[in-house]
Amino acid sequence: PGSPNPTSPKPASPVECSICFNTYDNTFKTPKLLQCSHVFCLECVARLSTGLPPNQPGDQLPCPFCRQLTSIPLEGAPALETSKELLATLPPELQQEKVLWMEGTKLCCRQSSDDPENPDSCISIDVAMSKPESPEAPPAGLAGRLSRCDMCDDWKRILLLSALIIILFCIILWPVQCALKTGNLRCFTRTVAMS
To answer: What percent of the chain has pLDDT over 90?
Structure first.
């Protein structure tokens, strides 16, 4: 996009990823070219590739638009070809592509080359899906059964509800039992002492 035309009704929009609508840059939003010629930012492609099912053959990523498959290299999404055309439209200071790599589900980039051994010189973002990788196994025994019970999470309400049910049964069932035994509701027989 060039400078806006003074006669145009609105300025030209910046080049952006059509998944996340963020403007391309030379780090996590680097424009990556899929085999179908659609372009998305590196972060979105990395998120899509980490979300692939484990039984998918050969890390084939379907394009979000046309569903054509793209082979993800062993190094991950950062090794995909960068769209040089879109990178050239960025400001001059953002046209130099930075080195990015994957560490598990983290997309990493070195901020400065002053001290490559310093872990603080790297920035990373986790591109994994929000669900945990492996669910925790509940403990065995009664504690495990209670941890699987969704109602047991709110034990105060369960305790209060149980007490109310017991009281309700005592109020309703006691007179019914009395009526069945005596034939009437006069279960309290008063003995009047004669003087």
So the answer is: 9
Total domains in the chain come to: 2
pLDDT in tens, 104-134: 888 888 776 555 555 567 888 888 765 444 5
Instruction: Count the residues in the chain.
Output: 195
* 38 within a domain of the structure (yes/no): yes
| DSSP class of 133 | S
Q: Per the domain annotation, does 138 fall within a domain?
A: no
Residue 135 lies in a domain: no
Q: Residue 113: what are its φ and ψ, rounded to 5°?
A: -100, 15
Structure tokens at 76: 């991950």
For residues 44 and 93, membership in a common domain is answered with: yes
The pTM assigned to this predicted structure is 0.55
Which amino acid is it at 140? A
Domain ranges, residue 180? 151-184
The residue assigned the tokens 């920035």 is 123
